[in-house]
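for the writeup, i need someone to sanity check this before i put it in the appendix. the sequnce is what the collaborator sent (i think, or maybe the updated version? ugh). structure was predicted straight from it, no edits. if anything looks off just tell me and ill rerun, i have time this weekend
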Amino acid sequence: MAHAAGLPPNEGAQRARAACVAMVAMAMFLGEVHAAPAPAAPPVALDTGSYDRLSEILIEQPGPLFVAPTRRDSIGRIWAPVYIDGKGPFRLVLDTGATQSGLSRTVASILRLPLNRTPPVLLRGVTGIATVPTVRIRKLSIGDLLVAGAVLPILPDSLGGADGILGTVGLENKRIQIDFRHDRITISFSHGTYPTRGFEILRFRPDGATPLIVDARVGGVRTKAIIDTGGQLTIANDALRNALMRHRFSWRGKADQIMGATRAVQSGELIATPAIDFGSIQIRDPYITYSNLMIFRHWHLQDRPAILIGMDALGMLDQLVIDYRMHEVLMRIRPAKGGRSRARG
């Protein structure tokens, strides 16, 4: 969809987005998981009521494995159908910013996974760190992805109806294709070839310590963009705001708050922002929250313009392909009249 340059964003959209940040902002990154010298958590009792309520989503027969139907939830995130220990599918949020997958306490109860047999870990979110219990699973699978014998953290109950988060462990030689128009997700082995016509190809540096970081421009400012399919909102750091101010962009923001996976809250400011350019693709996300999140400091990005690209922006694409073997992110949207590819919020 074309967006006229300089067109003022809708005031109602600003109010709706501000409410979304305050009320439903949740797990944006399931960051590094480290061993924590904390006592083992006590055994958790099986919640039979939760099992009865959710048993309808448990399917004993194997479902489609290569191409899996998915859908975006009310927040806009991608729910991937994942099998755990042969049961499911469970609805895990695909999170390209998370190194490790994680489950809700309800799923652990349904699968009868004890919380007192593996040590707790430190969960690093965008706004803080928390100690959480863990469970051991035999296997996790979707498409060509199979993770065996993993110890997974139990996430706080702020997942917006999802059963957990699907992280990037096991995707080193895989390709993820997300078709937003048809709500389908494919996870397959990467063979190094792909029909790239109509796609903008962005390179990222393979680094297990950081997420998918590609080059972008915001209002002409060179910016490091983190592709974050696990976050519903796009958030930038103060270094980007200061750079845009030097380009004489005017700023009239309003106070905002961000809650991460650990439920810690950081303050920010919701500000009208220029378009985000990925080569030939331009995404217009009218209002973006600016905050010096803890995670920016962890990735040493607090002093250079950086932005987390959440699902409010990524969801405007027609297709998103992430090839971990080739270290490429491919984006495609429907061409706008006039030849330049644009999407708007």
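The longest strand covers residues 87-94. Residues 1-74 have pLDDT under 50 and may be disordered.
thx in advance!!
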